[in-house]
Task: structure prediction
Amino acid sequence: MGPLVVLAYSGGLDTSAIVPWLREKYGARVLCFAADVGQGPGELAGLVEKAKRSGAVDCVVQDLREEFVRDCVFPTLRAGAVYARTYLLGTAMARPVMAAHHVALAQQVGAQALAHGCTGKGNDQVRFELTYAALAPELQVIAPWREWQFQGREDLIAYVKAKGVPVQATVDKPYSTDRNLWHCSHEGGILEDPAKEPPEHIFVLTRDPLEAPDLPVLMEIGFEEGTPVSVNHVAMAPVELLESLNATAGEHGVGRADVVEDRLVGMKSRGVYETPGGTLLYAAHRELEQLVLDRRTLRLKDELALRYADLVYDGRWWTPEREALDAAVASTQKRVTGAVRLKLFKGGLTVAGRESPYALYQPSYATFGKDNVYDQKHAEGFIHLYGLSIRIGSGLEAARRQQEVGAAAD
Result:
């Protein structure tokens, strides 16, 4: 009897090929593991039967949607983490929870190895394997893309067809997509040319902005300590809240991003991302922070956000570094409570209002009208001290020039 290998399985092209390949290469018994992180019913339907048809002994499907949003999405949102200036980390955020449950299943059934379908060019291989290293360093890791003879997706399509395994990918449309509750990513095919505009047919979560409703819609998102808790004054659990925002933002064409990013392995790649609800949440959270946090705390928060984004993108989730960053972020979020109203219109997004019981904005101080709390004469002393070093430096420079003129006259 061959070794038992637990394969992270999506039913897509790569993992469909891996099941028969593991049996041929290692004589393995393959147990597939699929994580439901919100791919949609169409992608998960018939997955168990398909895995068995491919030669797997079984396929375990676990619903991780709530855990994904609560424990991965919301912490990353609170951190304000954005990679490559515009990528909201949808694929990267899902990997820690998926890989952790992958490990747990392997340990439960006494497997000898873990396998995944990540390519040797991408980031996901690192994200999965750093989780394995943190949670199950004793298990063997098999990464077929780093071993097998196939050179590209065209070879894989031919292989799985020969094995009688149905897949959606074709040579004409060899796109790679990754969908969850937070986003849908698109790579490959014509998208490998960054000069080419993404074809409209690839989008699945967002309407073409040109075809979006002709009237704008207002959405109000409520937060408690940096965590979104309500939409339009209706309290919602994490999954329900994100699904609600996705539906409205997607209908209005909000949330598309075309990104040329730097992969961890060193190359640049191009991805097209749809993050409808997430785009609303980031915009609202950022505006609420701007209302309640002071200037220096905001600067610190921006610095933490960059570090957090790198950590998530690079797969360093299960580390003391992330725990430390979470603690720091949590201390900045204690007063990030309130509501932000957003206006959506044909792919655009604007802020229509924000309020918080902890707002540092006070009309009595900021008004251009008459007030009785701010003595404008105090600004004179402030400016005098604030510019003291400038005046000292200017005086020294004037004295130096005068000495040079005197020396030249002599």
